[in-house]
Amino acid sequence: MMKRWMKNLSAFALVAALGNFTPAAQLPAHAQQSTTPNVVIPLGQVVTIDVKGGITTFALGNSEIARVVVPPGQTRYALVTALKPGVTNMLIWTEDRETPINYVIEVSSNLRNEQIAVRVKVLEVETASDGKFGVDWSDFLSFSEAMPNAPFRFGLPIRTSVLNARIDTLINDRKARLLAEPTLVLLNGKEAEFLSGGELPLIVTDRDRINVQWREYGINLKLKAIIEGSDTIQMQLIPEVSDIDRANSITIANQLQGGSFVVPAFKTRRADSTLRVGNNQAIVIAGLLRNDRQEVVQKFPLLGDIPVLGWLFRTVDFVDRRSELVFIVTPEIVRDPMLRPESTFGKDADVETTPANP
Prior knowledge:
- By secondary structure, the protein is mainly β.
- It has 2 domains: about 1-110 and about 340-355, Immunoglobulin-like (Sandwich), CATH 2.60.40.1080; about 115-340, no CATH class.
- It has helices at about 1-15, 160-170, and strands at about 35-40, 45-50, 55-60, 65-70, 75-80, 85-95, 100-110, 115-125, 155, 175-180, 185, 190-205, 210-230, 230-255, 260-270, 275-280, 285-300, 315-335, 345-350, 350-355.
- A hairpin with a 6-residue loop joins strand 6 (about 85-95) and strand 7 (about 100-110).
């Protein structure tokens, strides 16, 4: 009875000591075990570690990264389940060893460690005289399906060469303008954002204080890219177009310092879509309409500037300008071997990988 109590007490003290334990991969070389088996487990997988000599007890450094179970009735195999990407370690005591075996456990993400270069073109296409837009993007779809007539139209992957030729023609004929042409580079599974516009200061009152908050407006594109397979990319695209709407601004009285200040409104068009596209294929996002009203003043020189009577010598016209903003997004996988980490370190352990149950 005393022997069993001492064994449990030793195990309890060991687990408590591991609360401040540093994984072996982070220890100095002189502090690591002479033999450090390396176990690399994909996220959501289970490995079976074959421990010769019989397992008497074990301890895990970080239970959030992995879970270890020794099946009842046997002492040779330990089951390790990958829970979270990261690196930790596990100590296993056996019947034929005085010192524990130190296993370095690395849980790798399912995402491939590559980068994606996303080329973005933002075009402004002028409306035709009959009120229709001069480009039918469905003519360039790789599939026979036509895009629906919706406020936002997400085009399927298209023939890039034909599309570039049509874009050059529109620009040369002055039917379209190239507003921006950024290239965003992001890690696999990460997000990126592009903004072409500005920031407007907004006054916000909080009890006895006045604060200034900045509100972005203009052309915005948020995207997320995940590599699926060798040449397939899953893209989440969130295009947004916002303009200052001074016609719907509100005036708020400044009760702290007197007077008042104007808070402008914003007109915003936004969409959110997730789709799959091949490597280096283009996606067209069309249908983001933009309406601008410009004030055109015509007047006689000098006479039109006379106070009060000057309006007799000048005319004011309002010109409505309608256009369509088009995003062309082309993702490309950056295959650079220098970006990939070492696949293994230390000595590989004797493991067998199986999918984990959900």
